[in-house]
Amino acid sequence: MTAKIIDGKAFAADVRARVATHVSRLQAEHGLTPGLAVVLVGEDPASQVYVRNKGKQTKESGMLSVEHRLDPDTDEATLLALVEQLNNDPTIHGILVQLPLPDHLDSDLVINAIDPAKDVDGFHISNVGLLGTGQKSMVPCTPLGCLMMLRDHHGSLSGMNAVVLGRSNIVGKPMAQLLLGDSCTVTIAHSRTKDLPEVLRRADILVAAVGRPEMVVGDWIRPGATVIDVGINRIERDGKTKLVGDVDFASASQVAGAITPVPGGVGPMTIACLLANTLTACCRANGLPEPEGLTA
Predict the structure, then answer these.
(1) Which of 154, 224, 261, 287 has the greatest number of C-beta atoms within 10 Å?
(2) Are residues 91 and 205 in the same domain?
(3) Is the backbone peptide bond immediately before 223 cis, with ω within 30 degrees of 0?
(4) Are 81 and 156 members of one domain?
(5) Cα–Cα distances in Å, from 73 out to 78, 81, 104, 259?
(6) Does residue 209 fall inside a structural domain?
């Protein structure tokens, strides 16, 4: 068996195109332009790349893109004052504070200072609680992207056995909640799960988000299963730096029915879903129907 490759890059391009169409319609029919503000504190190289890409794609979708770049020694009061300013700005519908923050800043305090309706990362404790109780919320971007690809590939997920490998607040836990919401039978596994390979072999759907390069090998996967690899790990191989996932693609692709590659799988969906969340937040703020197919 050779797995079907789930092309996240192409899927993300389609999501961005749909977002742009909705944005154009909002502007034409309601005079509204969704606005996304990104706050970057410090000079983390990876964060700078992410912020640059987010700004570029936000503008390409027709949205308002605002960036606030703060010095690494910015104090908490200054950052919280900026968040409050953005909370009260009617032109801004989505606020994203780029993580990680410098060590002297309390990430939880800052994230929970964001208006939950503008929390397009879905990290605010109110959104976590709403998602966990099956209510309307802002959904974290990476799990939302995974769910979109799974729905596209399978149609209905009802009754499927899903295993989420990883228990982070950013991916693992919200991914499990989303799969429960689509009527899957969900198991959360992690590095300390007993008989981990056997647990994974029961999965019709496997979402790997454990942060360990190529941990999941083909022998751990049920033949025909759908594998969503969230991991992005940099390793040295043959004298070169290479990006790999949490799944050993070479062996897994010989067993799985469908699989996302790394790179080019889940990664591009994260920013696409950030744009979708900003569009959704704008629609909710103005009492307009939410765009179909771009929410959980």
Answers:
(1) 261
(2) no
(3) no
(4) no
(5) 10, 15, 8, 42
(6) yes
User: pTM, whole model, 2 decimals?
Assistant: 0.95
Q: Provide the annotated binding site for NADP(+).
A: 166-168, 232
List active site positions: 54, 98, 121
pLDDT tens, per residue, the chain with 296 residues: 689 999 999 999 999 999 999 999 999 999 999 999 999 999 888 888 888 999 999 999 999 999 999 999 999 999 999 999 999 999 999 999 999 999 999 999 999 999 999 999 999 999 999 999 999 999 999 999 999 999 999 999 999 999 999 999 999 999 999 999 999 999 999 989 999 999 999 999 999 999 999 999 999 999 999 999 999 999 998 889 999 999 999 999 999 999 999 999 999 999 999 999 999 999 999 999 999 999 99
Structural domain that includes position 157: 141-268
290 in a structural domain: no
134: Cβ–Cβ under 8 A, 6 or more apart, which residues? 181
How many structural domains are present in the chain? Answer: 2
